[in-house]
Each structure stands twice: as structure tokens, then as C-alpha cells.
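Each lists chain and fold; for instance:
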Amino acid sequence: MTEKTSKNSALPQQEFVSRASTVWLIVALLMVQLPVWQEIPIAISAVSVLSIVWRVLILLGRGFWPPTWLRSLLVVAAMVTVAFSFKPLISLESAVAVLAAGYSLKLLEMRSRRDALVVVYIGYFLIASSVLFSQTLLQTLYLFACIAVLTAAQQGLYRRSTSIKVSSTLRYAGMLALQAMPLTIILFLLVPRIGPLWSVPLPDNSARTGLTDEMTPGDIARLSKSDELVFRARFSSALPAPQERYWRAVVLDRFDGKTWRQSDFQRSRVARTDWKTNQPVVSGWWQTQESDFDYEIMMEPTGKPWLYSLGQSASVPKDSSLLRTLRLEANKPVDVRTVYSIQPVTPEPVSLKPPEWLRKINLQTPDVGNDRSRKLARQLWQQSGNDAVKMADRVMLMFRQEPFFYTLNPPLLTSAGRSSIDRFLFDSRQGFCSHYAGAFVYLMRAAGVPARVVGGYQGGEVKEEENLIQVRQFDAHAWAEIWVEGQGWLRYDPTAMVSPERINSGLEAALANEGSFLSDSPLSLHRYRQSSVLNGIRLAFEQLEYRWQRSVINYREEQQREFLSSLLGKGDLLQKQTLALIVSIAFLLLLSALLLLKNAKPASAELALYQRFSKKMARRGFQRSADETELAFAQRVSKQSPELAAVVSQFTSGYCKLVYGADKHEGIDKLKSILRQL
């Protein structure tokens, strides 16, 4: 006798997992692991594939059940893979990897209904964990499909027939989900939103595409090859003109001859109050430029602390700080989708003078290298009459009049060493925004004018129906700022001199002749905005996505309070909220009871008698299982209790004859007589 036969024979018939249920569970395994495949090691994915192939071979009768030692070896290999793949070990990603490994390996020992239920429940946990990594509308719809398949697999374990159509199974699972929907919506809307009772390490977003706190030539060009969403800005009034859409993120003021970096003032001797505050600042050397825009930012997770603002920021959102570089920084890395608001700013008219330590930082250049650029800076400074603004205008004029070119594919300057500015200004003259911003700042510093590079995004796609601007990675940009006594930091963008189309119409227009816009993403719908059909589909879906994120995903304590206040009125909101919750649930329970009573089928006289028979047998220790036929039950009772055999056989025989065509009246009277003998 084979191992498969001997072990399966020990299971009751009702505990077997049918072929149809096994197929459902394999399909569910494939679907549920798809949303998290990027978060788990390749070795764990390989284990999943191995488990699926092995189980399919068993299903086809061409495989054998893996022995205990082999299953144990696979478990150890999976755990060792997790241990070596995640640093730190205790994290959300490692927990999901363990779940995925357990989900796959459990398939290799699934013989009974109990084993199959464990597989189903682990699948539900994986679906829930995938929401922590992505909450887009598209993934939500996909997860609903995963839940439907898992539910179909679960309820299929209890069906007697193995030949039920797939459409029937899915329809049944869909009906279960729809029945749960009203209660889900009520709980979502009315249950008070509170902070988490405990926390887990959030997903590591360090590998995400996005700006960093350093910049070398080509970094932003690489970002511009991605169409990943960065943030959405919703304005309360008029939208800014294209020339004003400079979204500030990082300020780079340290240059080593090749790379621009942000200064780390936490490790410096500068007093904290001189470089960081959590209060709005509109005067002194912190003073920003005037802004009339009132807007809300919904930014995607970055794993970095910086926030985005339209130009120099002075207002400070909740749980963030304003740095002396006039940029915003959250109190902790942005690991979840974040919403914050920026208010208009009206600075006080005062004479501005920077601290000496700030001036030194923004005049720093490497001691050696770029000799031709230094010489050019001295010449332009003399021609400008030692005036910072005139000097900046001359540099901008040079970029506009001389043969400089804007491209995503400039010549590499890595071999230039510490003379990369010279190589760019005098030799290649081809570059992206980071090349032009870096060269501009270097020339200004070499002339004695404090200057710095600002990294962020420029432009964005306008959604007029929502009064919204949507910014993506290909809008990444770098520009420059110089310090002017009495005026503060003034923005200069040399890229606008070389390629005005980049500022006025966006990256796609600037690269029209080169044809390199999203060249690495041939399936991106942003490449086909000329097609009215494809662009219409994209815009419609993006509008739905924004509303989903803003109304559902961002439905937090403050948003719930605003919604319920408009719905229930002001006053004691918690009391009204509790009452509304109780009334809504009571109404659903009453409605469900009425529907059940309406659809309930009255038991026939013969069925009522058999139910009485089943209860009497249960009191004697014989419980009939759901998938056990009447005759099989009678045979089991007769075998185990010979003293009941005659009465049970007689009653069951009479019941079957009655159900399948005997005279109703005579048969029922006879069954009642037999039943009284028990």
C-alpha cells in the first residue's frame, strides 16, 4: 500500500480535500502572493513556485507526498533566507515573508479540511498585509478578487458535490461579500477613528524612486525616466502659472567637486534655533518670498523626511519643522501617504543680512580644480560692476546665447575628476537641469556671491476639474538661488534659458526632438497623451484614484469629524455618532431577519420527522455529518449499535420511500409510529 493511500485512508470521507477545492487553493495562492512579490526574497518566491508545481503533480497522480524531513528542510531554508534577507530582522517585510513561506509550504502537507482552512486563513492575513504596502484603487479592486477566490475555496470545502460550476462558486462567494458590504460601510463611516494601540515597523521605502539629499550630474535625469506619482497639490483658488510651479524639496549647499549635498546641522556647532523652527517665520534672515497660494499636498511615501512646498516655505504644517534653507521637513520619515496644508505668506519688509556662518557655507568651493570656471567667474564679476544680480543676469545670458543643449543623455563627466564644471561649461555643453544649476551656483560662488542648488520638481499636470496639479518623477528638476542683500534668496533657473519649453510646457515638450521622454517605459500611458482615447482613460482613472485616496484612504479622525458634523450637525458629536452606529446596526439586523423569514422554506412533514429522528439519535451519541446520506448514517448506527439497528433501518427505509414517491399520508403516519419506538 502506498504512503498516499495509507495516510489518506485514516481520514473520514468528509475530511478529504476534493480536487476542485485543491485547484481553488492553488489559484488563490498565486493571486494572493502577487501583490507582495516585490517585498519578499526571490528564494521565498521560488519556494512558492516549487510548492505549486509539486502539488499539481500530486493532483495529477504523478507526484508523491514529500516526507517530513524534506518539508522540515524547506522550512529551515525559508527561515534562513528571511534571516539573511532583512536588516533589521524584525520588520513588516520579514513578517510578510514568513507568512508567504508558510502559506506556500502548508500546501505540501494539506490533506484534510483542517489543513485547507489553515491555508485559507493565512491567505486572508497576506491580503491584509499587502494593504500596508500599497493602497491604490487598482490594487484594492484586485484584492477584492483575491478575497472572492479565497472565500470560494473556503466554502467549496463544505460542498458535497465536486462538479459544481466555477461560475456558481464565484457567485456564491460574491454574494457573501456583498452581504457583508453594508455593515462594512457603516463601521467604516461611524466607528470612531483612534490612533493605533500598538505599532509595527513600517515598510522600508529606502529603495523607492525619488530625490535624495545629494546630487551628481545625471541623478535627476534618471528620475525623469519614471512616471511614478510623487504628490498631488489641490489649490483653494487660482492655480499658479507654469513659471511659478517650483516645488521645493531639498537644498544642496555642499560641493566636493563632483557631488552636491545638504549640510548636516545636527552635527555642527550652530544653535538649533538658528537653523530649525516649528513656528511660521516671516521676518529676519529667515524671511521668504511672498506667496498668495493656499493649497493642500497629498504626497506619496518616500521613506525620507522632506516635504514639498511651492517655492520657499514659511508656514509650518503639523508634525514638521522649517529649516533655515526655507524647506520643510517632517519630524519622522514619510512612510505612509501624508496630507498637509500650506497657507499664504506675507513677509515683513525688513533689511535682510545673513549670519556669517550661513554666508561661509554658501560660498564654499573645492580648493583645487575648475580653473577655467574660476577665471570666467572673475571676468563676469568685473563686467557686472561687483553687483550680484547683474552677475546672475550675465550668467543666465551666457546660457541663452551660447550653444548649450538640453538633453537626458549628456556625455559622461566622470573622467573629469574635480574639473567637471570646466568640462561641462567649455567642452560638452550638453546637460540636464542638474548640470546647469550646479554650474550656475559654482560660478556665483567663485565670484563671491552666496548661492546654492535647490532640488525638487517643476511643473506638473493640471487637473482643472479638481483644481489640482499632479506631479510625477519625470517632473524632477534642479535650480539655483543666490543671496542678495536686503532681498534674501532669489531664484534663478538656467535651464529656462537653454530650454524654455521645459518650464512652460514640461519635459515631454523639451525632449520632443530627442524622443527620449519615458523611453524606458514603453507601456506608460503618459507617452501616449496625444491619443484622445488613451489619454481620456488615463485621466478618468487618475481622477477616480485621487478621490479614492482623498475620501477613503485619507478618512482619518479629522476627516471623519468634518464628515459627521456635516451629516449629523454640531453639538455632542460622539453621542450622535454612537447613536447613529447603534441605530444603523439595529436596522441591518432587523432587515436581515425579515429577509431570512421571507426566504425561509417551511419544512415538509417528512423532513420535520427526520429532524426529530436526528435529534433523538444525537442524544444517543450518533451525530450525522452534513455530507453523510441517510442510508449511510443508518448503516453506521446499525453497525455500532445492533440494538437500534431494526428501528433505525425501518425508519430510514420508510423515510426514503416516502421522499421518493410513497403515499404521503400513509407513509407519514407509519414514520410517526416507528419514531415513537425510539
The first helix runs from residue 3 to 8. Confidence is low (pLDDT under 50) at residues 1-11. Residues 152 and 173 are 5 Å apart (CA to CA). DSSP finds 24 helices and 18 strands in the chain.
